[in-house]
Amino acid sequence: MLDTRLTPHLGAETGALDYDSLFDVKDEQGNSIFTGVQGITVVGDKIYLVRTHSDWVYDETTGTGQDVESNVLYLVERDTDGALYMTKSTDITGLTGATQVRVSNDGNSLYVIGADNIALFDASDLHEIGNVGSDLGMVRDVLAQGDKVYVTSGDSLLVFTRSGETLTLTTTLSDAGDTGLQLDGANALTLSPDGKTLFVATSGGDTVVSRFSVGDDGTLTYQQVIAGSTASEEGYYASAITVSPDGKSLYVVDNNTSLHIFAVAQDGTLTATSTLPIGEDATSVKQVLVSPDGTSVVITGELGRSENYNTYGVILYARATDGSLTQLQAVEGFGDIANYNGTTLNEVRYASFSAYGKQLYLTGTLNYDTPEGSSSSISFPPARPLRKEAMPSPCSPEGRCLPLSTMKAAIKVPRW
Fold first, then answer.
1. Order of strands across the sheet that contains 100-103
2. For residues 238-262, b (16+ Cβ closer than 10 Å) or e, as one string?
3. Partners of 77 in the beta sheet?
4. Helix or strand or coil: residue 41?
5. What are the backbone dihedrals phi and psi of residue 263, each rounded to the nearest 5 degrees, phi first?
6. Looking at 164-281, which runs of residues are DSSP E strands?
7. What Å distances lie between residue 62 and 55, 57, 66, CA to CA?
8. Residue 208: DSSP 8-state
9. Which has fewest Cβ within 10 Å: 30, 252, 326, 401?
10. Residue 221 above 90 pLDDT?
11. pLDDT tens across 24-79, in order?
12. CA angle 363–365–371, rounded 5-degree value
């Protein structure tokens, strides 16, 4: 039995995102184990995800119960036939509120960002090496290159040097006020493809990006600060940033309403070129991503409401060679949504392109609507079984469909 609500929409226009597949794993009670899935990153055929979730646990000895939080890191791999398999998982200790996972530029290490610190893992076996940053306050982003790990927290950019399993804080760069170094609300980080320039998104000041040159030893030198092409009377509040694979364009999300575009010169110098409105109803923009081939840009989050009163979770743009963008599609879900015969994107938390850019992996929650109008909330992630076995399809050969309460979704990305 095939549930047509989950099949690709054949009427989709050329150049549109289209539904590809769902990935879900159930526990012995038939419940999805991915409720609360958050960050995702893809490295080759490997997909890393983090989950944070609280369960009420009853203590028979005391006769009382309490919510107990669990944080888990997962490794999902793609087999030669294209099927996804859960191969490893591990509990994250010494960290709460895991939200994002970052990978070092050599692919060997993972950095999981929590509410109050960072956990470091070996990417091959998910061995937890240790954690750092418990005295930093809220950690906003992490980027690792070579033996240097760059971290944003508060109004500061911190540089750690890694030696084996030890991270040592070597440099702290802090906001200098109205003049000089600008690091107001330092948050999202991105590195130029050649590794020679670090861009830092800032929030709460009169500028939106600070640029640093990166020396051969990883040392940072402050070079430039810049505002968007459109003036902001109330200050800039950047929350997401990325650079194109060719290194010629920088994209910055500001105040959940604007997407700033900057041209990047060969030496890293930025020039503001344009600003696109995201939409008046957008309430939270989580990420901006450029496809590996540089032809597509997507933003994810809660991006306004459709005429069907659903939330747009993804907006797709075509990227020209000069870095300019043309909006192609705002995605609220898939299927015959207008007639309540489809799946809608209730909340897109994080996303990552596949290695070749043909798929966009999403984590978050869905609304799975039935023709009768009832719905069940579903989040799209992976699972916890450690043995390598094929994941179940949404419907069994006997025609019994899973409730799809939690899953990871893959969307086909158009080729221009």
1. 100-103, 109-113, 118-122, 128-132
2. bbbbbbbeebbbbbbbbbbbbbbbb
3. 46, 85
4. strand
5. -85, 140
6. 166-174, 189-191, 197-201, 203-205, 209-214, 220-226, 236-243, 249-254, 258-264, 270-277
7. 18, 12, 11
8. S
9. 30
10. yes
11. 777 787 777 778 889 999 998 899 999 988 878 888 888 888 888 889 999 998 88
12. 130
222/170 Cα distance (integer angstroms): 16
Task: Assign 373 a pLDDT band (cuts: 50, 70, 90).
Answer: very low
* Rounded Cα gap, residues 205 and 237, in angstroms: 8
Report the pLDDT averaged over residues 384-403. 31
Listed in sequence order, the residues at least 6 apart from 381 whose beta carbon sits closer than 8 Å to its beta carbon are 23, 24, 32, 34, 37, 49, 51, 74, 363, 406, 407, 408
Run of H or E residues at 380: none
Reading the block at residue 339, the tokens are 């007639």
The pLDDT assigned to 244 comes to: 97
> In the structure, what pLDDT confidence band is assigned to residue 94 with cuts at 50, 70 and 90?
confident
- Of residues 290, 286, 277, the one with CA closest to residue 311: 286
- pLDDT of the residue at 370: 37
| Residue 66, strand partner residues | 57
- With residues binned 3-state (H G I as helix, E B as strand, rest as coil), the percentages for the chain, rounded to 5, are 0, 55, 45
Distance CA 268, CA 208 (A): 16
Q: Please enumerate, as own/partner, the contacts of 282-288 that have beta carbons within 8 Å and a separation of 24 or more.
A: 282/256, 282/257, 283/256, 284/256, 285/239, 285/240, 285/253, 285/256, 286/240, 286/348, 286/349, 286/350, 286/351, 287/240, 287/242, 287/350, 287/351, 288/240, 288/241, 288/242, 288/251, 288/252, 288/253, 288/259
3-state secondary structure of 154: coil
Using one digit for the tens of pLDDT, what is the confidence trace for 262-300? 999 999 999 999 999 997 788 999 999 999 999 999 999
For the entire predicted model, the pTM comes to 0.84
Measured distance CA(8)–CA(46) in Å, rounded: 24
